[in-house]
Design goal:
Strand content: 5-15%
Radius of gyration: 17 Å
Length: 224
């Protein structure tokens, strides 16, 4: 039987890398999309595809994941343009832009009318948590968690530049292992380092090891 979507996660990842209009360039119309975020997008597409809330007769095509990846990259480019970042690098804070961008590309069951955004948001968080477990499940992140023990907080968000986030977080024990597990070796690029740290913060929140509060366009992480 022929399908219009990849059957395996690895196939979805390859398709997104091949088709999405993103690159590791530094010009004004491109953005770096780290591997762990590509995996989040791929897992998200698969969760949506398998959700009982979605009309299985319509399905969710491979183009859905590509459009989601392009949306994340566009959010990163916007941040770079507004904050003056030299290199646009996508981060977890760019992921929420996916939901309104793809909502019209999915047919939901009639019983779910009015809950479409809520369902997609839940599945996106699930994709982040699954990717966190896959990528960082075996990495010691106690150093990052303990950095909040004194009651300090870290503010980030879609318009917070990478350098500001890095200054807030300060030195972290085990940072090199964290970034290496995510396939980030270029720690001299602030955007890439910030992308790895922000992903770890969100994963720790989803696993209930950190707290999180949203205020206007900012996200505040702290101890539980």
């Amino acid at each position: 039987m022929r399908t219009h979507y990849p059957l395996e996660l690895d196939d979805e990842l390859r398709l997104i890398r091949q088709e999405a209009v993103v690159s590791w360039g530094i010009d004004a119309v491109s953005a770096a999309l780290p591997d762990h975020l590509i995996e989040v997008v791929a897992r998200f597409a698969r969760h949506v595809r398998e959700s009982p809330a979605v009309d299985q007769r319509s399905g969710v095509s491979a183009r859905f994941a590509v459009a989601a990846a392009e949306t994340v990259a566009a959010s990163a480019v916007r941040r770079a343009a507004l904050t003056g970042e030299e290199v646009a690098v996508a981060r977890v804070s760019d992921l929420p832009a996916i939901v309104p961008a793809v909502q019209g590309k999915v047919e939901f069951e009639a019983s779910e009318e009015g809950r479409e955004a809520e369902i997609l948001d839940h599945l996106l968080r699930r994709a982040v948590a699954d990717t966190f477990r896959s990528r960082l499940g075996g990495v010691d992140l106690n150093g990052l968690v303990e950095s909040f023990a004194d009651g300090s907080v870290v503010e980030t968000g879609e318009l917070v530049p990478a350098t500001e986030l890095l200054e807030e977080i300060g030195p972290i024990e085990g940072l090199s292992k964290l970034l290496s597990a995510l396939g980030i070796d270029d720690v001299d690029t602030p955007g890439l380092a910030a992308a790895g740290i922000e992903f770890a913060l969100e994963g720790l929140y989803l696993l209930r090891r950190l707290s999180k509060e949203s205020v206007d366009d900012r996200v505040i992480y702290g101890s539980r």
